[in-house]
Design goal:
The complex is a heterodimer.
Chain A: E1 6-10, H1 11-25, E2 29-33, H2 49-53, E3 58-60, H3 65-76, E4 81-85, H4 96-109, E5 119-124, H5 139-142, E6 149-151, H6 156-168, E7 173-178, E8 185-189, E9 202-205, E10 210-214, H7 217-230, E11 236-240, E12 243-245, H8 250-259, E13 262-269, H9 274-284, E14 296-300, H10 309-315, H11 319-329
Parallel strand pairs in A: 2-3, 2-4, 4-5, 5-7, 6-7, 10-11, 10-13, 13-14
Antiparallel strand pairs in A: 1-8, 6-12, 9-11
Chain B: H1 6-31, H2 46-54, E1 61-63, H3 69-75, H4 79-86, H5 120-133, E2 140-145, H6 152-163, E3 168-174, E4 177-178, E5 181-182, H7 183-186, E6 203-207, H8 211-226, E7 232-237, H9 255-263, H10 266-276, H11 282-305
Helix pairs in contact in B: 1-2, 1-3, 1-10, 1-11, 2-3, 2-8, 4-11
Classes of the chains: A alpha/beta, B alpha/beta.
């Protein structure tokens, strides 16, 4: 079915649509998780899928994350293409061995024999008052493990195209979806061949004065800040890596050569975050010579995520921090 | 008891001797510093590793432990390629990138040895799920040691395999020590097979030094799993003659204990059986042992002559 049709839908529905299309296309795609069947998943992403695909392909597991991830890895290395839903990214701690010690290294340590086409869907991030064990942004952990791919969609269109690309990829892919974006709506191509290529960094908004690199919920905040600053004649360029690991750095290098100013932002704690890696790679690149101001990192505070909504919002960067950050880099404060 | 054909008995005797010779050679090479990596030897445990492998049918899959040499030889891995891998050569199963802890032959259903104790349980569940999903009629054999049954992954895997009735047989090689810790200090039960009760699956404890019992129980367990009746937990009590690894000075056990177990040697048991039942003549048996030894000599030659991996291999096969 070829179509150029675009439909407005939520990020949640876009993930479900992408996953559904791939399951229709390929019998070997199975979907495993806790309460993903009749319940529809803790965040309702898989609502109704069991009706179409049945219990043999939409499989509720015991609350056993080690078995959930390990079973998916074992299935992937023997010819299926499992998609796993972890109820929250925080619970991956219980399934980390199968991901890090088995899935990620298997192809390499077996001298190229294994193929592990696995997708882990990992709902992450703040915004719900869910507290310290249900709100983390753990993407940096996975970006430290060669063999894994780490992607994160920031819009509904990216969500659909990226989940499809992740399922078609022959490697273990950590697909990090931001919980605060589930309701966010946007245009989504209905074309079943629409894919978002893994390993491609995207320029979300062109500009010439300051480069902002960000993803997740902060992308929308940065875009709002950019619109506000545009009123004052400041042109911010916004870059979304989409694939956090292995990251395509060149578009960021080129952007910084153009603007001479860089802000890197994420919800995850600043120390040891993905932003630090981006900054280091810019410092190592020819873009270093073009910097007109120190690089600015906007990250989560180095604290566990607190419960109270007021406290929670205070630990992750907000729109105004982008505005003030841009001013600071332009010496206008 | 299941009838054993002469051909099968020949394979048992040859392969158990092959496994023993392989490890004697590895130990020798280690002492000469030809093998650098720490090797985890299973001498004394040949009846579980080798015989369980011989009970499999073509196309069945296996997940191995860190102590994998007998298991690998039982499954049918080529000793030349195994030895080359241990020597870190490009002709090895993993082209020199895995070593003794990661022997694997995916194409033929060998899901690999595992450097993580208990790492194989859930992978085996996944492989069994694939067999069930694709209705292949194949069964997965998952090896593990006694210590691994104290890992959470063991309990999660048994529970899941039971709920989903996966075609899976867990074979626990209980060699009475988790590295140096005697079993009495790490679990409060006599038989690990008792743990099957919690998951409503058959659990059987057998003499892991007895080829007859291992073959019989494994054949029946595999048949049970193949029939779609769900997983089985088999515990085989056995003993390793060597230390945990090649740098273990074995302060935790007595020479007398070792000697007691050596009286029950699995290869000796098979040899006695073959003599008593006049399956082979003494001369025939000598020939079988010599053939096994010479196969290992050839494996060493093959491995020694093989090239080391090209340095460019370092950046290959990180991603598919």
């Amino acid at each position: 079915m070829e179509t150029n049709e675009i439909k407005k839908m939520s990020y949640r529905d876009a993930i479900r649509l992408g996953l559904t299309e791939e399951m229709r296309e390929d019998e070997e795609v199975i979907f495993l998780g806790e309460d993903i069947g009749l319940y529809g998943g803790a965040y309702n992403v898989s609502a109704g899928m069991i009706d179409e695909f049945g219990e043999a392909r939409v499989i509720d597991t015991p609350i056993s994350e080690a078995a959930l991830v390990g079973t998916a890895v074992g299935a992937a290395m023997t010819g299926l293409r499992p998609v796993c839903e972890l109820m929250n990214i925080d619970f991956i701690t219980l399934g980390m061995d199968a991901l890090v010690n088995q899935a990620a290294k298997m192809r390499y340590m077996f001298g190229g024999q294994a193929q592990v086409p696995l997708v882990l869907r990992l709902p992450a991030g703040t915004g719900f008052g869910a507290g310290a064990q249900h709100s983390q942004s753990l993407e940096a952990w996975f970006c430290h493990v060669p063999g894994l791919k780490v992607v994160t969609p920031s819009t509904p269109a990216q969500a659909k195209g990226l989940i499809k690309a992740a399922i078609r990829d022959n490697n273990p892919v950590c697909f990090i979806e931001h919980k605060a974006l589930y309701q966010a709506e946007g245009p989504v191509p209905l074309d079943p061949d629409y894919l978002v290529e893994i390993g491609k960094t995207v320029i979300e908004r062109p500009g010439k004065d300051v480069t902002i690199v960000t993803y997740g919920t902060l992308l929308a905040k940065a875009m709002e800040a950019a619109a506000f600053l545009a009123e004052e004649g400041i042109e911010v360029e916004i870059i979304n890596p989409v694939t956090l690991y292995p990251m395509e750095i060149e578009p960021i290098v080129e952007s910084v050569i153009k603007t001479g100013r860089l802000i890197v932002a994420h919800e995850a704690p600043k120390t040891g975050g993905v932003g630090g890696e981006i900054v280091a790679r810019i410092a190592e690149s020819e873009a270093f010579d073009y910097l007109n101001a120190p690089i600015l990192r906007l990250g989560g505070l180095d604290v566990p995520i607190p419960y109270s909504r007021e406290l929670e919002a205070s630990v992750v960067p907000q729109r105004n921090e982008f505005v003030h950050g841009v001013y600071r880099l332009l010496n206008r404060e | 008891m299941i009838e054993l054909s002469e051909e099968l008995l020949l394979r048992m005797y040859y392969k158990m001797n092959l496994a023993r010779s392989f490890e004697e050679k590895v130990e020798e090479l280690f002492k000469q510093h030809t093998v650098d990596e720490i090797a985890y030897l299973s001498r004394g445990e040949e009846a579980t590793g080798v015989i369980a492998g011989l009970a499999l049918q073509k196309g069945d899959l296996v997940s191995m432990t860190h102590r994998s040499h007998s298991q690998a030889i039982g499954f049918g891995l080529d000793v030349n390629l195994m030895m080359a891998e241990l020597l870190g050569k490009s002709t090895g199963y993993c082209r020199g990138k895995g070593g003794p802890l990661h022997l694997a032959d995916l194409e033929n259903g060998n899901l690999g040895a595992n450097g993580i104790v208990g790492g194989g349980f859930t992978l085996a569940c996944g492989a069994a799920l694939t067999q069930k999903h694709k209705k292949t009629g194949k069964v997965v054999l998952c090896f593990a040691g006694d210590g691994a049954t104290n890992e959470g992954s063991f309990h999660e895997a048994l529970n899941l395999a039971s709920v989903w009735k996966l075609p899976l047989v867990f074979l626990i090689e209980n060699n009475l020590y988790g590295m140096s810790t005697p079993i009495a200090k790490h679990m409060h039960i006599e038989n690990i097979s008792d743990r099957s009760t919690s998951y409503d699956m058959p659990g059987i404890t057998i003499d892991g030094t007895d080829f007859l019992e291992v073959y019989d129980v494994m054949t029946k367990s595999l048949r049970y799993a193949r029939a779609g009746r769900g997983p089985v937990l088999v515990e085989a009590k056995t003993y390793r003659y060597c230390g945990h690894s090649s740098d273990d000075v074995q302060l935790y056990r007595s020479k007398e204990e070792l000697q007691e177990w050596q009286k029950k040697d699995p290869i000796l048991k098979l040899k006695n059986y073959l003599q008593e039942n006049r399956v082979f003549t003494g001369k025939q048996m000598e020939t079988i042992v010599d053939e096994a030894k010479s196969a290992i000599e050839q494996a060493v030659e093959f491995a020694m002559e093989s090239p080391v991996p090209d340095i460019t291999a370092v950046l290959e096969d990180i991603y598919a």
